[in-house]
């Protein structure tokens, strides 16, 4: 049985990836951070919490990373742990550098000490392209990061390439464009929209307040991206791959489509300066043709269907909550 270790298994992608790998017959281990209250709702939601082995580890602490390796003895490591929210990275630039940037090097370094044969996946980000002007980005597009998050991810991206070339590690960068789902954290704009729109439609909220609604992103459906993440480690030679849909849509389009699906007026949408970031990326759209050619990966879910999946699930969750049912997921805390 192949043994996989997922850092950040409690996050959106970690949970979907664990679910996917279990179906493939993997033994799945995942790291979680010790916190005063646990964050396993996604693992319960996917009904996999009792099928995986959870190991406490923090990417700020090399010793805990090494212990996770000893306990899991993995053949593949999917490094997803990160301070992943761009907005928060402006408030916590040093922390973001430490977790998202240096954290990756801590993992890479411990791999060198533990077993150089482990395959390593780094979740790099389309945000690394930042303010670069070309309309569609691929693996050869220059990077121009525009946030502490993007700069930290770019640092980790280059370190991953360096460890591949200098130490002959099987190390892969996935350059992931935005991917969303009902398991997205509530601070991310797509989930903020689907959750608030659901509440408005049920009469428990009245407004959806956003920031820069003209920002455009390439939004895919997360469960399809974790398959691409897995495929990236199954080919003979390690490489870097863009995963995207090749379409971009604005936050305004997302919010308006969500209102349409929930059958509420677009007049509920407002903007506030307090939600603006110090600096924002206008448009990100990705060309996934290399991943299609080399890995046989392509996205399936279209934009309108993605919005529908998210809005309908948030409405369903709130309806259940209003009936007084206990829910493991986070809608109840919003
Ligand atoms: P999430 O924010 O949902 O998950 C991040 C995970 O990292 C959580 O499990 C979190 O744990 C964990 N984590 C945070 N800090 C630490 C730490 N110090 N030590 C150990 N674990 C930590 O992100 P996603 O699942 O959406 O994304 C997965 C990866 O892919 C991230 O690296 C992200 O930056 C990257 N990515 C995601 C994209 C997307 O659109 N989703 C696009 C491009 C890249 P906890 O639950 O305790 O907070």
TrEMBL record:
Q: Which Gene3D superfamilies match?
A: NAD(P)-binding Rossmann-like Domain, UDP-galactose 4-epimerase, domain 1
Q: EC number(s)? A: 4.2.1.47
Does this entry carry the keyword Transmembrane? no
One example of a Gene Ontology biological process annotation: 'de novo' GDP-L-fucose biosynthetic process
**Which keywords does this Swiss-Prot/TrEMBL entry list?**
Lyase, NADP
GO molecular function terms noted in the UniProt entry: GDP-mannose 4,6-dehydratase activity; NADP+ binding
Q: Which InterPro entries match?
A: GDP_Man_deHydtase (IPR006368), NAD(P)-bd_dom (IPR016040), NAD(P)-bd_dom_sf (IPR036291)
Q: Which domain of life is it from?
A: Archaea
Q: Which reaction does it catalyse?
A: GDP-alpha-D-mannose = GDP-4-dehydro-alpha-D-rhamnose + H2O
Q: What are the residue boundaries of the NAD(P)-binding domain, all occurrences included?
A: 5-310
- Which metal ions or organic cofactors does this protein require, according to UniProt? NADP(+)
Per UniProt, the enzyme's principal EC class comes to lyase
Read off the CDD domains from this record: GDP_MD_SDR_e
State the family named in the UniProt similarity comment for this chain.
Belongs to the NAD(P)-dependent epimerase/dehydratase family. GDP-mannose 4,6-dehydratase subfamily.
What function is annotated for this protein?
Catalyzes the conversion of GDP-D-mannose to GDP-4-dehydro-6-deoxy-D-mannose.
Q: What is this protein called?
A: GDP-mannose 4,6-dehydratase
């Amino acid at each position: 049985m192949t043994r996989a270790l997922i850092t950040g298994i409690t996050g959106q992608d970690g949970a979907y990836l664990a679910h996917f790998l279990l179906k493939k017959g993997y033994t799945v281990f995942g790291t979680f951070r010790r916190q005063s209250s646990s964050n396993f709702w996604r693992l319960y939601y996917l009904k996999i919490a009792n099928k995986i082995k959870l190991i406490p580890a923090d990417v700020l602490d090399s010793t805990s990373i090494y212990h996770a390796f000893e306990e899991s003895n993995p053949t593949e490591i999917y490094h997803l742990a990160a301070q992943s929210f761009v907005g928060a990275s402006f408030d916590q630039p040093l922390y973001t550098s430490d977790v998202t940037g240096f954290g990756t090097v801590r993992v890479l370094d411990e791999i060198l000490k533990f077993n150089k044969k482990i395959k390593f996946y780094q979740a790099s980000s389309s945000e690394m392209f930042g303010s670069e002007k070309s309309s569609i980005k691929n693996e050869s597009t220059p990077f121009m990061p525009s946030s502490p998050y993007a700069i930290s991810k770019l640092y980790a991206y280059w370190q991953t390439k360096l460890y591949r070339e200098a130490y002959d590690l099987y190390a892969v960068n996935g350059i992931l464009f935005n991917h969303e789902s009902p398991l997205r954290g509530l601070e991310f704009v797509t989930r903020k929209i689907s959750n608030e729109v659901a509440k408005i439609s049920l009469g428990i909220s009245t407004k959806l307040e956003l920031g820069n609604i003209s920002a455009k992103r390439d939004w895919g459906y997360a469960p399809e991206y974790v398959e691409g993440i897995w495929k990236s480690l199954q080919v003979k030679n390690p490489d870097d791959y863009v995963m995207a849909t090749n379409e971009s849509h604005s936050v305004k389009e997302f919010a308006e489509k969500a209102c349409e699906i929930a059958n509420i007026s677009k007049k509920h949408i407002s903007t506030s300066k307090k939600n603006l970031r110090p600096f924002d990326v206008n448009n990100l759209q990705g060309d996934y043709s290399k991943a299609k050619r080399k890995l046989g990966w392509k996205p399936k879910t279209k934009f309108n269907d993605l919005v529908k999946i998210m809005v309908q699930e948030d409405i369903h969750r709130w309806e259940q909550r209003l009936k007084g049912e206990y829910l493991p997921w986070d809608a109840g805390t919003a």
